[in-house]
Amino acid sequence: MTRPLRLAINGASGRMGSALLALLRDDARFELVHAVVAPGSGQDGQPVFVDRADGLRYAHDWVDAPALDVVIDFSSPSALAAALDHCLLHDAALVSGTTGVDAALEGRLAHASGRLAILRAANFSLGVAVLTRLLREAAAALPGWDMEIVEAHHGRKQDAPSGTALALGQAAAAARNTSLEAAAVYSREGQTGARIQGSIGFATVRGGDIVGEHTAMLIGQGERLELVHRATDRSIFARGALQAAYWLAGCAPGQWQLDDVIATSG
Ligand code: NAD
After folding, report:
1. Which residues pair with 146 in a beta bridge?
2. Are 37 and 169 contained in the same domain?
């Protein structure tokens, strides 16, 4: 039997980090060797698994990280940048779900993919991957219909619209031979004037404990098509990220997609 993959989690004390840790307890494919939390976090230095004698403790940086095969990152853009530096120094593959990444970091990630296997997804759920395919098809089949994307998340989410909403918009724009930059309308307030033909509108809902909901509306004259995905448990994202990490370790350098994992995992 092959040895388990040596895994690090970046953002280990967060909502997604905790969901990953819960799954890792019973996942023999991985050995968790490093778990990074934000500097100043109350968990820094505490044992990761209190009921185990493996000695693994949360760390606030990468200085003492042992050799590892793959990093899973669900943190913040600045924490992702630090994880990327570590992956580059030690040739580790990188799976990241962090959203709200600016153009400079996007550029660094693209450049790093010349040397590293990197897989990023705004949403690691299988259902959203299929929703994206369906939306591409609908956007191309109904070119004259107005398109609006509505997303809802818990009140502590830091960025808007969600990375998933933007990825859906990108997919739909490409299916209509345009770009999200050209088509997106992110806010409407006051005297907005009439809707711009061919635009893709975004609306954001924030509150309570909503894990993540995305609705793509295609609105015609007298009829409307709605494609809806509702995540009710964030373990779906954690499960998808672990599947992606297992698949990615050993892949050639490049920018890989969740679609690649789904296509080859059956
Ligand atoms: P969270 O706020 O609960 O957790 C963030 C984690 O990052 C915490 O552990 C925090 O300590 C750590 N962190 C923050 N700054 C840091 C720093 N400078 N150095 C080291 N660690 C740092 O957030 P979350 O809900 O777990 O989401 C994290 C990210 O993942 C967000 O960008 C979110 O949008 C994204 N997300 C993606 C998916 C997906 O499927 N792609 C799903 C859920 C969330």
Report:
1. 219
2. no
Q: Which of 29-38, 85-94, 118-127 has the lowest mean pLDDT?
A: 118-127
Task: State whether 151 and 180 are in the same domain.
Answer: yes
Strand (E) or helix (H) holding 24: helix 15-24
Backbone phi, psi, residue 114, to 5° = -70, -20
**Spacing, Cα 218 to ligand 1 middle (Å):** 31
Atom of ligand 1 nearest to the CA of 78: 18
Residues 48 and 85 placed together within one structural domain of the fold: yes
| pLDDT single digits (tens) 124-172 | 998 998 899 999 999 999 999 999 999 999 999 999 999 999 999 999 9
Are 17 and 28 in a shared domain? Answer: yes
E-only strand ranges, the chain: 5-10, 30-36, 70-73, 93-96, 117-120, 146-153, 184-185, 200-206, 212-219, 224-231, 254-256
Nearest protein CA to atom 4 of ligand 1, as residue: 14
CA of 74 to the centre of ligand 1 (A): 4
The CATH number given to whatever domain includes residue 77 is: 3.40.50.720
| 199, 240: one domain | no
Q: Which atom of ligand 1 is nearest to the CA of 99?
A: 32
Whether the model clears a pTM of 0.70, i.e. scores above it, the answer is yes
C-alpha to C-alpha distance for 186 and 138, rounded to whole angstroms: 21
Atom of ligand 1 nearest to the CA of 157: 34
Closest C-alpha to ligand 1, atom 31: 98
Which domain does 93 fall in, by range?
5-120+234-265
- By most ligand atoms within 8 Å of CB, the mutation choice from 43, 74, 78 for ligand 1 is 74
Q: CATH code at 134?
A: 3.30.360.10
Residues involved in catalysis: 153, 157
